[in-house]
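Notes from hallway chat w/ T.B., transcribed later so I don't forget. T.B. wanted the structure written out for a chain they're using in a teaching module, and asked if we could keep both sequence and structure tokens in one place. Agreed to drop them here.
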Amino acid sequence: MNNPQHTGPAPAMRLIFEYEGDSVRLVSQQPVDTVVTDVAGPGDFVVETRDDSGQRLARVPAHGAFLQSAEVFPENHTDPITRVNVEARGAFTVIVPAPVDATRVAVVHVAPPGREELREGATAPSAEAARDVDLATFPLRLQR
């Protein structure tokens, strides 16, 4: 039986972003010891690590990023909680895999496809039909 060497968790970075509207800035980068997988799950916004050529190395969802609504709790607890539109403003945190060749990080809006990109008879667009739009790219400071 083979006995593989245990190398520990792959490098990862905790990134904290602030945003207002579509403007985003990276305010903190911190190496962390944790296991992070490349999760290309659903989401309107993702954060990618990339190499020098701009090739995507990993992609994770940015949960809670660019929220444009808020819950409003009524004074009378028997009234329903409502949701109102607000200006997108706040912060979010992600942990991304940071392989040794990662040199930058990008915040990406995964725009839904237009109606013309729906296949005839399809009830939902194909994954390839989504359009990715880079909102911002930042250098990644890895401690080697």
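Follow-up for T.B.: The chain has one domain: 12-139. Might be a good example for the class.
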